[in-house]
Specification:
Order of helices and strands: EEHEEEEHEEEE
Shape: globular
CATH superfamily: Regulatory factor, effector binding domain
CATH topology: Multidrug-efflux Transporter 1 Regulator Bmrr, Chain A
Strand content: 35-45%
Mean pLDDT: 95
Number of helices: 2
CATH class: Alpha Beta
Radius of gyration: 15 Å
Number of strands: 10
Oligomer: single chain
């Protein structure tokens, strides 16, 4: 299932995350190891998440290394440490949709909707691939309730450029 694309306006959102580089193939195996690490760190520091876990894509190179970050929103900016670091999801307008189980198809659908509506992403060429001001997938389903990832509701969000054509 792929929901209807829409534009949403978001305020700046502080978060704590673990950033890493991983090849596209096998990326989710590495990502799935980091969420428990992040959750354990949060518990040890008495921090309650202010929203669902997410996977942020800083730089995408599907043929090479992906620069990604697992994260969780927090109510106020907090310090991290050597492994867990603070970050901000920037304020702005985002193209967004919700999907279940069809990640690549959902990404294609949202990008096509962005093109069809003559919108510009906050995106630029980087020596390591396509870099984004903010592109992420928020996992809306609690994995304790539904362990099958293919059944999760996931919000895909891509920040739009501040100035549109």
């Amino acid at each position: 299932m792929i929901g209807e694309p829409r534009i949403v306006k978001r305020a700046e959102q502080p978060y704590l995350g673990i950033r890493m580089q991983a090849p596209f193939r096998g990326m989710f195996a590495q990502v799935n190891k980091q969420f428990p690490t992040l959750d354990k760190w949060l518990r040890q520091h008495g921090i309650t998440p202010a929203g669902p876990h997410f996977l942020r894509y800083h730089v995408i190179d599907m043929a090479g290394e992906m620069d990604i970050e697992v994260g969780v929103p927090v109510a106020t900016p907090l310090p991290g440490d050597g492994r867990v670091k603070p970050g901000l999801l920037p304020a702005g307008r985002y193209a967004s949709l919700i999907y279940i189980g069809l990640g690549l198809a959902a990404n294609k659908a949202l990008q096509e909707w962005i093109r069809t509506n003559n919108l510009q992403l906050d995106k630029w060429a980087d020596p390591k691939g396509d870099a984004f001001g903010c592109r992420y997938e928020a996992y809306l389903t609690d994995p304790k309730v539904e362990p099958r990832k293919k059944q999760w509701e996931i919000e895909l969000a891509m920040k739009l450029a501040d100035k549109q054509p």
